[in-house]
Amino acid sequence: MAAKIKFDSVKAGDSIPKLVVEGVSRPDFVRYAGASGDFVPLHYDQTFVEAAGIPTVFAQGMFTAGLLSRCLTDYVGAGQVRNIKVGPKSKFSAS
Description:
The protein is mainly alpha-helical. The chain has one domain (24-94): Hotdog Thioesterase (Thiol Ester Dehydrase, Chain A, Roll), CATH 3.10.129. 35% of the residues lie in helices and 4% in strands. The protein has helices spanning 26-36, 46-51, 61-76; strands spanning 84-85, 93-94. A two-stranded antiparallel ribbon has the order 1-2. It is elongated, with a radius of gyration of 16 Å.
């Protein structure tokens, strides 16, 4: 369990523990698309992304936000995060 860290003790530039997520694959993005309704081809269609000049598919923003929230709660301790705000093209904030 992570130590309980208070908001006031965290400073810009502080390091947090590394989160390694292994075994994520394209089918995971497709399943997430089914759950979220985000079927943008950037997340699963290799031909589409290459035509757009992108080397490979990438996760949906909210998939990534879910991993970010896990990283954050692992760092500060379960129950310490009351609110997380993320959205398309927005800055991440937490309290």
